[in-house]
Amino acid sequence: MTKPLIMVVDDEREYTEKIANVIKSVNKYEVITAYSAKSAFIQLKKHRQLFGIFNNRVRLILLDINMPDMDGLTFLEEMRRKYCGEKIGVIMVTAYEDEDKWDKATSNFVVGYITKPFDPELLLSMIDRFFSHEEAYVDMTIEVFDKHLEKMEESKTQPKT
């Protein structure tokens, strides 16, 4: 049986390889890397399948936000348009934790949001959970979106300074 395919997208090569090596170390997943949004789109196109339950071999993307040319949030929006209907999970792995970026990421239905420097155990547990059962994609997306809605509500009730 083929191992699930994960793509790590980050312009910082050293960091990309670090994440990829952590994932490879458990020997459960195949990993490919992309150092730009353009390269990530090439990989997605390359791994698109004509038949099967899922239309793309890439099942999960670990995505950085801050990249040149096209940032991760723009990539995420474009990927959701181009691959609409395909269950490709996205975990944001980023140094940015501000409200605006959180809002944009979570409103585009990510399955997780991890800040750098990342905790390898947390990352692997999130990946394992994503691949644990068929509905995990939906469950995780709903959980993150619920947090998104909670944060929106909190910001409405916070006094303005």
From TrEMBL:
Keywords: Phosphoprotein. Residues 5-131 form the Response regulatory domain. One of its GO terms (biological process) is phosphorelay signal transduction system. The modification 4-aspartylphosphate is found at D64. Gene3D superfamilies: 3.40.50.2300. This is Response regulator receiver. It comes from Candidatus Saganbacteria bacterium.
